[in-house]
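Q: A reviewer asked whether we had any structural model of the full assembly, not just the individual parts. We don't, so I'm hoping you can provide one. Inputs are below.
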Amino acid sequence: MRYVSILWVAYRALGQNKLRSFLTVLGIIIGVAAVIAMLAVGQGARDAVQAQIASLGTNVLIIFPGAANQGGVRMEAGTAQRLTEDDARAIRRYCPAVQYVTPVVRTGAQVVAGTQNWRTVVYGAYPEYFIIRDWSLERGRLFTETDLRGATKVCLIGRTIATQLFGDADPVGQTIRIRNIPFKVLGVLAPKGQNAFGQDQDDIIVAPFSTVQKRLMGVTHANTILVSARSVSEIREAEAQITQLLRDRHRLMPNEENDFTIRTQVDIARAADATSRTMAMLLASIAGISLLVGGIGVMNIMLVSVTERTREIGIRMAVGAREVDIMAQFLIEAVVLSVSGGLIGIVLGIFASRTLTRLQGWPVSLPPEAIALAFLFAVAVGVFFGWYPARKAARLNPIEALRYE
Amino acid sequence: MVEAPLISIRKLIKVYRFGEVEVPALQGVDLDIYRGEFVAIMGPSGSGKSTLMNLIGCMDVPTSGEYELDGINVRRLSKNELARIRNKKIGFVFQAFNLLARATVLENVELPLIYADGISGRERRARALRALELVGLADRVHFYPTQLSGGQQQRVAIARAIVNDPVLILADEPTGNLDTRTSAEIMGVFQQLNERGITIVLVTHEPDIAQFAMRIVEMRDGQIHRIRPVENRRRAEVGSWNGVPGTRSRIPAEGPPDRLRTVGPALP
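A: Here is a predicted structure for the entire assembly that you could use as a starting point for your response.
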């Protein structure tokens, strides 16, 4: 079969210039390896973000108040003070898809313990807050319904606060002053680390809702209401039930917009995923450029090869090679270059991503489609950049080619 | 019944165009060459003999006029069909040998068969070996061209020319790079092939070499000046090149190596 022979010819031609062939292939190797490694890093980052979001609890809904409207001037979202503790209680009572509910108030405050002070955010919530956020205690105990009813001055502090105010000492049972009001520390929350957007989740103080609302802030509304659905599949149902309930309670006419917004973890996850996807695309396209440069290297060498072998082409044409035969010979040569580069690049890319995990601790994950994609891309580069030199060879005039020195 | 000529050329005109300038290379050539003939085409450089050779060899197409080879009108053929004719009907022998330097003798001879459909690797090899036996190089099949003398290289080229059983061999100054004695040997090979029935058309500017042919076509200014039969035709001593081991391994004494040209990448 003639194409077996042509493949053999291509193989021989490449073998005759081992160093040159290797350097050409190196461009493809580096390109493919970079694409593979970058896809792995990008995918790994996405997986990590997904995992972090899952750790927040995927069945959580957050209800924000709408924008305040003062004489027709609408303020930013969340400024309205229309959510109340009663709303939260009503949700608990009347929405069957909802499992846990807590109203949340939030205020920035300076906290002092001994000689240390720190600026942080103080949250007021029900004890359910910790169930909804799947947050456990490192030490100490939670506040109770009794604390809630009595608006007692107790609090739980995050890992960051504990470290900043007490260093290595045990904060449980100690007193801290929040806006000069003494609070007893009941416990320390287990560290949660940064959230998907890089905020320190452990820089937080949580106290009973009534305590923060009345004693610290002196307001009657809630900033947000945090809700967990009975299951992930009931999120949409819970959202619908809450929407209906709150519209009724806020006496909204059918033509009026909601004066609140419900966001689910699904929405937040989608936003975070879009961010990490953009990063992954960016990484892959930079790697793709290096593959493109490798392809240009293939084209360059193929052009040199065609010029060098002008006489050979003339001889082949004289003994009966058709244009398509010459074209096939050089195209196969280019594809052999890029395919071998692709294969070595894949191995190298997998190795590189493994090394990144081991040395840098980066999460990497390499889906098989990414490998297939990188390989196909390498073959395409070979065909694309081999086409022009091959056609140039095939279009040579046999008489002039034979006369070429 | 009169036998039809193998090559029939009528009013053949070839004009090369370089931008605005037109250079007439052939200005109306009529020529018939019959099966089994051995014809030498002679003429000074620029007389159009190489152009005529390229047209006969189907490497180029005429500007106008008719050319029939073995009953096929070449003018109407596509590039692919021309390649097929070169492959099946014509064997080329060049002054510069034009062997592939990186391929062995055997691979060089097999080359035309690669481009002919439906020939298995085994058959290619068998046919190439037969052709090499015919030119007395059966013991050099695994050598590379650069390991051979000029005369031996030209014999490899001849083996390549005959491997596909062509009706016609076109030899373009085949002795131009060889010394007198080797030239005579090579011409002997041609004469033997001719006696086996292969038509041979030879381009040369050496009168001595032309004397090996049966007819001489003299060209001048793109036209045939005259055609004359060869008197006192030279005969190579058959046997001096074929079957005598001593003559085959005589590598030097066939001209300085710098005159041996093979194909390969030029050194930088």
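A: Points you may want to mention in the reply: Chain A has a mean pLDDT of 86. Residues 2-52+271-403 of chain A form one domain.
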